[in-house]
Each structure stands twice: as C-alpha cells, then as structure tokens.
Amino acid sequence: MYQNIKAYADHHHVALVAVSKTKPADLIRELYDQGQRIFGENRVQEMIEKYELLPTDIEWHLIGHLQKNKVKYIAPFVSLIHSVDSKDLLKVIHKEALKNKRVIPVLLQFHIADEETKFGLSIEEAESILTDMEQLPLSGIQIVGVMGMATFTDNTDQIREEFRRLKQYFDRLKARFFHESEVFKHISMGMSGDYKIAIEEGSTMIRVGSAIFGAR
Ligand SMILES: *Cc1c(COP(=O)(O)O)cnc(C)c1O
Question: What pTM does this model have?
Fold first, then answer.
C-alpha cells in the first residue's frame, strides 16, 4: 500500500507525511528502508523516543496538539510543526528555536471541521496574529503554510467544501501577508480517507497513517 500512495503523491507533486503514531520503531524502519523520510507523530514523548532510535536523516513532523511546556523537548530536531493554533505557542516556539540557534518551520492550523473537538484558528485569529507579527517579527519561526483536518464523515461534498475553505484561507493569507515570500507555500490537508479529495482541492502535503501502516 505504501508504494501506491507514495507513487500517487509523487505523481501529484505532493509531499507524503507517513503518520507513524502508535506504531513501533521497527515498522518505521521498514518504511525508511523503502525510501520514506518524512514521519508524523502527534505526541511529543513518542516522537522523542523514536527520534533517538531511528536514523538522523528522518524529518520529524509534529502533527498533533502541542502544549507550550513541551516545545523545548522537540525544538532541537523537529522539521515542521503542523499544529500551531495560538500566538502564545508561536512565541514559545520562537524562543526555543533561538535557544537552539535555529529557525523552526511551522504551519498555522485552522478549524475547518464542524466538530467542536478539533483544534485550530479561525481566519480572523490568524489575520490578527500575522498583523501583530508584521510589527514584531519572530525570527525563530518561519510560517510556511496552513494545515487543517476535515470532519470525520462519509459526506465527500462536505469534506471537499472544508478543504476548499482551507485553500481559500491560504490564498487570502498569501495575498495579504506573504505575497513577496516564497516560503509560504504549504497546504497540509488530506488523511487516509480523504487524501485524494484533498489533492484535488490543492493540498501540497498529505498526512497518511492507517492506509500505510494499517489500523491503529
Ligand atoms: C492520525 C492523524 C492523521 C492520519 O490519520 P489516518 O486516518 O490514519 O491517515 C493525520 N493528521 C493528524 C493530525 C492525525 O492526528
């Protein structure tokens, strides 16, 4: 299954994040041996344990909700944080990045689903954060795009509508805050059940777990 999904992503020029949460290091290693380099985890502790066991050229993406007091543990090595949903979290990532003498790439996570439980910003909150940052830039972070999760539903029209909204947010922020920048370019959307729809709606990065590793 991995090879098919990888070929599909490559064909569409979309990055594939293999979501390895709850899966043991030896399964990750098997995928690594087939060429996969980007892995996504949603828990800090689990990501650190796997980082220590596995090859250093793996790009570790944090895709789950991130608590401010845990940023320091991943700041030395994380490649991309998909789940930034507050100004305070951005500031903490900035500070920890500077301590590690690096710049940490992040995505702004948007709330696009109609479920209460999913984290994320509204477009108004994001615009307010980015307006503040025009006055006071945070040199330890680089905002490279947006991320969102569609509602868990069989209604593909609804899923498509939600992805379309995320793409609109991306376009709006790009025009207003990043028009001169090449770095704001990622739309992280699409999981095992909906990555084909996401790619049709403009995804540049899909996060696929169970379709690669099997059910959790
Ligand atoms: C678990 C998870 C995924 C992958 O989900 P699958 O349905 O297993 O592909 C993608 N994104 C986030 C944020 C996740 O937590």
Answer: 0.97
